[in-house]
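In this section we walk through a basic example: taking a raw amino acid sequence and producing a predicted 3D structure, encoded as discrete structure tokens. The instruction is simple. Fold the sequence below.
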Amino acid sequence: MIPELISASGPDVTAVAIPAWLDASAVAVGSVSGILVATERKLDLVGFIVLAMLGGLGGGLIRDLIIQHNDVYMVNSPYAIPMTVLVGCGGFLFPSLLTRFPHLIEWVDIISVGLFVAAGSDKAIVYRMNPWAVVLMGTVTGVGGGMLRDIFLGDTPRIFQRSNFYAICAVAGSIAFYMLIIHANVTGEWATAISVAIVILMRRLSLHFNILSPANVDLAPVVKKKVRIIYHLAQEDGRESSRRILRKFEGCDGYQITYVQQPSPDVAHAQSGETDASCTRVIDRIEIEDDIPEEASQSGSPQDIGDRQQNS
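The resulting token sequence is shown next.
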């Protein structure tokens, strides 16, 4: 029976019932990522088991420790820990089997990430967490296991390095899950399916077109150049406004212009480090005849007063 798409009673904030076989498969595939690294490093049986547990259960463990509602998945689930131990032992005993199906493992890996993202986001929504926390919980559940795995091995987590989309896919899937549940009133089953599809689609597109996450970005020079252009345009506009004002008062009596000296914001002086920058004369205020004090008007004409203040 196909579940309904839209919830009739508002946002569906009940826990999504992921089938047990699908949940166990996601944990097992997450454990495979740890086994692959253990095979590369030629670790012993303990190393295989620990990395398998970190890959399959690490993200959920981080999520549950942050939520702190006495609901730790790896402790409450009857098959989570045994499943990861069995996968670790199998990878230790039969490592060559994993190299035969690299494409299958890649597909199943990103599917498990999508399921982890949906499960983490759903659990945060059930506990009435804010949108930022929902996205964080979904992302951490999806990629936290791999992050712990790399930390335990003393490496920079792969999700922090420039590569094809992985953590970005988890973020997008978590955002989609929250928007579908809270704002579109989509039921949990359909929201899970759509968010998993978004994670898979973004991952496959990034691999197909070799789209890499950005790194070594520095927008400061670009922003500085744009700000400098805007400043000089505003400065030129101010000078043009001053010229229009002066042309308006040309040939007229009964006004007084007061000037002030300001350092010229010349880029050449600033870059050369010179302290004696040239000054620019700018208009401070314009006083019409009615605003000029009586003693100032008696001591001379307004034009003479402006010239004397300018010379001083």
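Looking at the output, two observations stand out. The first strand starts at residue 255 and ends at 263. The CA atoms of residues 161 and 257 lie 62 Å apart. In the next section we compare this with other chains.
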